[in-house]
Amino acid sequence: MKPTHELLYHFLISVNIIFIHFNDTSARKYPSSPLLPGQFREAPKFYNSPKCPPILNLSNKLDNQDDTNNNLECSDEAVHVVMTLDAAYIRGSMAAILSVLQHSSCPQNIIFHFVESASSASASFLRATISHSFPYLNFQIYQFDDSTIAGLISTSIRSALDCPLNYARSYLANILPPCVKRVIYLDSDVILVDEIAKLAHTPLGEDHVLAAPEYCNANFTTYFTPTFWSNPSLSLTFVDRKACYFNTGVMVIDLERWRRGDYTTKIEEWMELQKRMRIYELGSLPPFLLVFAGKIAPVDLRWNQHGLGGDNFRGLCRELHAGPVSLLHWSGKGKPWVRLDANRPCPLDALWAPYDLLKPPFFIDS
User: Fold this and answer.
1) For the chain, how far is it from start to end, CA to CA, in angstroms?
2) How does this protein sit in the membrane (predicted)?
3) Which of 97, 119, 201, 300 is the most buried (most CB within 10 A)?
């Protein structure tokens, strides 16, 4: 007989597939024209439980203020979540935000810090979209100057990885206000099904800068080129470090320690070397591994069930890893909203669909 959690998982898959079917998947072929803020439904408002610690009750749109000590964005009682925003992934971002709020017992204590490209022509659209669907959300939008990183980016095996905004996570300590001490960084293709405060309170020990789920069974050597491993001065980088792969789409980061250690500069130094001698093939991940692998605080694997986007070359469907699930991550080539629209979803895409805020065709506001 199958374990109870496995039976429940298959039941949820079946229910969600039925949900998608009766919402007429053939009608879910959304127009290819640019999205508008009004095309997303307004999410319900979620309230704190009585046990939540009190924090300042300020405006939901955190404008830059000189007196940051009285600003909600500086609250140590809040859970600070950082995500990048762009028009191509906004649908995933909206679903991720909804999932975080829906599964939190203190949703009003969550502050979102969104980073967008300073050169983006969709800045007003992104802000209006967030405000329209989450009118009570505590958030701030920061701009990331693409020129900061443009000269350091090397081409990778997937062109999508070369977007400058993918590298913004290396500059969070510079982008966010100095008063923000600890953040959770999330990619736009995730869904949480657990209390995010549990992840936020991950112990970092006395000196760790970040925490993330580690995958020590992965072949770590494949993340770097033969040029790297054949050079003694480079391959010795991981000596005396139990270096394991970790996915940078879900991280808990101590920004105070990051600033003190000047880790942005350390990452940039590896990127400069990459430009000269090609030591890795992927985008923003390898510099993080070079600086932090073997030096991070562990997080239970349930907090990053990654790879659900499928095979990077063919987009083949994947199943969940064994064990409990707190966060689902559609890293990889395939995104659930794209596959659902094309009427070619993977089974696990049914778990993403209930968080999709994009209005179906002929939607009528009640």
Assistant:
1) 45
2) Single-pass type II membrane protein
3) 97
